[in-house]
Amino acid sequence: MKKLVLTGAAGSLGGHLRAPMAAMCDELISTDIVEELEDLQPNERYVQADLADLEAMIDVMAGADMVVHMGAFVDEGPFEKLLGPNFIGAYNVWEAAYRNGLRRVIYGSSIHAVGMYPKTQAIDTEVRHRPDTFYGLAKCFAEDLGSMYWDKRGLESVHMRILSCAPVTNARALGSWLSYDDMVRLVQSCITTPITGFSIVYGVSDNDRAPVDNTKARFLGYRPQDNAEQFADEILAKTGPLDPQDPFHACHGGPFAAVKLGEPASSITKGADQPEE
Ligand SMILES: NC(=O)c1ccc[n+]([C@@H]2O[C@H](COP(=O)([O-])OP(=O)(O)OC[C@H]3O[C@@H](n4cnc5c(N)ncnc54)[C@H](O)[C@@H]3O)[C@@H](O)[C@H]2O)c1
């Protein structure tokens, strides 16, 4: 791989991806809206750019093979707040990738594209979209964008519907956890799989309680190695039995499924529960 591009490079997941992605290519272009990025790898260059600026995205992707698109506003909020970074930003990434002849977009999608399904239903990668928020709706938009650019323009994309890639602090995360190491494994397999076409995969570790089914995405070669069960005794002792009527826990989207449209998920955060993804 000659050149890879990483958007959202200053973010939490971007920070874990920079070194392993740099190791996979001759040159890594890391981009974000922040002014600067510290501790650049020897073959990494930082470019400050707004996802909502198409010309900037076209410049960033010149000569690249693939882009890993992680940049976004990451919470529920008013539609207008998400429009630039998440909706227009997604269009700009796909359009810039297409104009530069990239092979593939690897996208940080989310469980919130299907967050309104009840937890009692195990969902696979073929269920219809059922977004829980404007944030989830933007993920649906980007997934459909990827589908259309594959069908009409031959640009491949893998949509990683990440559940929650953060430390395990609550009962929901016993099922939804994606360890940072597994997240890196997932991105690596999305890059190295020879042919992906348009694909969807859930970003989740090998948790005993994982509520999603990745069977149809096995061809990607993603084999998670971590399991949140190691935290179960400690977490369940803290939270006690969960209330089955609590909308916080009833749907795949967790707190996002319970929040009012347009309101940050932190507005309904309770106790030690974080509004994790
Ligand atoms: N962390 C999770 O558990 C999780 C779960 C599901 C999906 N995701 C998705 O994965 C991706 C990365 O998530 P994260 O946890 O690292 O989030 P993050 O908020 O830490 O990182 C997002 C980055 O995007 C950048 N950004 C925001 N607006 C921008 C703009 N207009 N132009 C350029 N850059 C901009 C931010 O500066 C930030 O560095 C996001 O798309 C998120 O929706 C994350």
Index terms:
277 residues; alpha/beta; seven-stranded parallel beta sheet; 9 strands; binds nicotinamide-adenine-dinucleotide
Molecular structure report:
It is a single chain. The protein is of the alpha/beta class. The protein is built from nine helices and nine strands. It has helices spanning 12-22, 54-60, 79-99, 134-153, 173-176, 180-192, 232-239, 247-250, 255-258, and strands spanning 3-7, 27-32, 44-48, 66-69, 104-110, 123-124, 156-162, 198-203, 212-213. The chain has a seven-stranded parallel beta sheet, sandwiched between helices. Helix 3 (79-99) links the parallel strand 4 and strand 5 (104-110). The longest helix has 21 residues, at 79-99. The radius of gyration is 18 Å and the shape is globular. Nicotinamide-adenine-dinucleotide (NAD) binds next to helix 1, helix 3 and strand 5. Residues 8, 10-14, 32-34, 50-52, 70-74, 84-85, 89, 108, 110, 162, 164-166, 277 line the site of nicotinamide-adenine-dinucleotide (NAD).
Summarize the structure.
Helix content is 33%, strand content 16%.
Task: Kindly provide the radius of gyration, computed on alpha-carbon positions and rounded to a whole number of angstroms.
Answer: 18 Å
Secondary-structure element order, N to C: EHEEHEHEEHEHHEEHHH
Helix content: 25-40%
Number of strands: 9
**Proportion of β residues?**
15-25%
Instruction: For the record, give the distance between the C-alpha atoms at the N and C termini, rounded to a whole number.
Output: 31 Å
Average predicted confidence as pLDDT: 95
